[in-house]
Amino acid sequence: MLKNQILKQYFGYDTFREGQAEMIDSILNGRDVLGIMPTGAGKSLCFQVPALVFSGITLVVSPLISLMRDQVQALVANGIPAAFINSTLSSAQTAKAIDNARNNKYKIIYAAPERLDLPEFLEFLQRSDISMVTVDEAHCVSQWGQNFRPSYLKIRDVIEKLPKRPVISAFTATATSEVKEDIIRLLSLSEPGVLITGFNRENLSFEVKKPADKYRTVITYLKENPDKSGIIYCSTRKTVEEVCSRLIGDGFNATRYHAGLTEEERTRNQDDFLYDRKAVMVATNAFGMGIDKSNVAFVIHYNMPKNLESYYQEAGRAGRDGTPAECILLYGGQDVITNQLLIDSANDRDEMEPKMLELVKEKERERLKKMTYYCHTSDCLREYILKYFGERTVGFCGNCSNCNDNFEKTDITEQAQMILSCIARLKERFGIKMVIDTLRGSKSEKVLKLGLDKIKTYGIMSGVPEKRIRDIIHYLVLQEYLLLTNSEFPVVKLAARSKEVLQDNAKLSMKMPRENEAGNSLAKAAERRRKAYGNSSSDSRIESRKTAEDPGLMKKLKELRLKIA
Ligand code: ADP
Ligand code: MG
Fold first, then answer.
1. How is the beta sheet containing 230-233 ordered, strand by strand?
2. Which ligand places an atom closest to the C-alpha of 48?
3. Closest CA to 144 of 174, 169, 188, 171
4. Which atom of ligand 1 is nearest to the CA of 44?
5. Cα(418)–Cα(406) distance, rounded to whole angstroms?
6. CA separation (Å) from 68 to 61, 125, 170?
């Protein structure tokens, strides 16, 4: 059966999502794969569909015991024979499952990694036709990963004991480059097809604040956004209690969630939030697993989490409906210390040997460092996150606190009109420099000799710094409102899209590096007030001179420009 037929018949979907078809094709071609796709992207289908095509059995190793049952139930409900083997089964149930498996009753078998040791199970695997081994949550194999599970290291041994080497497919939602390399090495993936998809969440904006008073910052935000629903994550139960009761005391519609509450209260509070009876959920990271509330408009971190995996996962609960949502991290120096303590004191993990435990802790400290850098970088926050997860980036996003502080979105409609009409009046005969000189009313010999001071647009941008005009022209070329000839002395010409600006009055805006950000708060404030630049000529001239005199600032501006390009 074709993969599209299987998709429709067994899962009831019409189309594959981003990356799914590629993963499935690779697997069906017998190639190992590593799929790094965010939570909710649909990784399960990537191995479930090929499992139905293969003649033999697919073994799925998963660490999430609670989810295993759900997944298997869903498969069975769709008419796919499946079972799971983990510690929730009694030994009689386990024996029964293995017995059924021997009699070829299952197409897909989920197993917890610890169960791979079980002699009967191992024996079954060795005697069966195993077409594929899938490792879900594959980051667990790496000490660099978020939830390292030593038993994941056994997977490779089991595969080696199989009579025929199966296809190996591995999936995870978070893999830094170290984790990626570990997965490939520790699972012995052979020339795997690696696919990383869609970590960027366009509708989320990112912000880091370092407030003196975190609580004040929170209530200011809540007052400014009275109708929004959101989550406030705190690092400890105690902080949850404090923040929540203060919020309620101050008249906000808040509730709380952490592992110290009774199950009854947790369910009640969670439902209150899910069904919009309470607008604000104050919670520890215990809240959110498997929760899919679409209209979470903000996620505020009252404390910095211990790594970017946690941060992005929690922040990512905002804006599931695709509408703009805010992710705000309130950083305080104490957060680093608290996390360090948490890492140092966690000693009871998965029966880990002391040496291994020390290694794991070292890597956790390393990841805490990267989380901390996030709070201190002046680069684009989105880029920082995406880079961490190994995704290619565009340099700056224009939708995070760093981009917004260092860049601004500027309306350039009028300037673009002036530039284009100047080029038209110059009969498209000159290069960028002459266009700028004409616009700025230069009295250079060349301009005067050519009589350019007689044309109508001469001097209409006299107050605008040369660099700004040049930036706009470059942008217009990039967006194909203008074109540059490919000659030794490139000439600027009108392009097909020029009409949109000159006749249709298209609104244009571009992101520009803020100027005068060298710590001069007065100049900064003036710059912000003057949203559309160039309308205050004397100011602009002073600014451009200042810029030219300050090599540090020049360098910074150059870097910023490079980022745009
Ligand atoms: P992941 O493991 O990547 O977090 P899941 O495999 O659990 O994600 O899938 C998340 C949800 O997306 C599930 O409800 C699944 O049924 C749904 N889904 C997956 N693929 C598709 C598809 N092609 N079309 C529609 N829904 C899909
Ligand atoms: Mg999954």
1. 204-209, 325-330, 298-301, 230-233, 280-283, 254-257
2. 1
3. 174
4. 6
5. 26
6. 10, 19, 16
Would you state the pLDDT for residue 394? 56
Q: Are strands 167-172 and 407-411 parallel, antiparallel or unpaired?
A: unpaired
Tokens read off for 114: 């610890």
C-alpha 104, offset from chain centre: 42
Q: At 494, give phi and psi (nearest 5°).
A: -70, 155
Residue 181's contacts (CB-CB under 8 Å, 6 or more residues apart) are none
Give the separation between CA 550 and CA 546, rounded to whole angstroms: 6
Backbone angles phi, psi at 235, to 5 degrees: -80, -25
Nearest residue to 515 (alpha-carbon basis) of 542, 479, 477: 542
Query: Ligand 1 in contact with 13 (CB < 6 A)?
Result: yes
Can you say whether residue 390 is alpha, beta or left, with left for phi > 0 and alpha for psi between -120 and 50 degrees?
Answer: left
CA distance to 122, 475, 484, per residue, from 430 (Å): 77, 18, 10
Rounded distance, CA 506 to CA 498, Å?
A: 10
Q: Which carries the bigger pLDDT value, residue 428 or residue 533?
A: 428
**Per-residue model confidence as pLDDT tens digits over 291-319:** 778 899 999 999 999 999 999 989 999 99
Ligand nearest to the CA of 47: 1
Atom in ligand 1 nearest the alpha carbon of residue 43? 3
Cα separation, 138 vs 148, whole angstroms:
10
| Nearest in space to 175 (alpha carbons), one of 167, 183, 164 | 183
What is the pTM (predicted TM-score) of this model? 0.63
| Residue 175 main-chain phi, psi, to 5 deg | -145, 115
Residue pair 110/72 in contact (Cβ under 8 Å)? The answer is yes
Atom of ligand 1 nearest to the CA of 17: 23
Q: Is 17 in the pocket of ligand 1 (CB under 6 A)?
A: yes
> Is there an atom of ligand 1 within 6 Å of 373 CB?
no
- 520 has a pLDDT exceeding 50: no
End-to-end C-alpha distance for the chain, whole angstroms: 47
Residue 7 CA from chain centroid, whole number: 28
pLDDT in tens, 328-365: 999 999 999 999 998 988 776 667 788 888 888 998 99
Band of the pLDDT at 285, cuts 50, 70, 90? Answer: very high
pLDDT in tens, 111-158: 999 999 899 999 999 999 999 999 999 999 998 877 889 999 999 999
Query: Look-up: residue for tokens 């930036």?
Result: 471
ipTM computed for the complex:
0.99
Q: Supply the mean pLDDT for the chain.
A: 87
Rg (CA), the chain: 30
Does residue 494 register a pLDDT over 50? yes
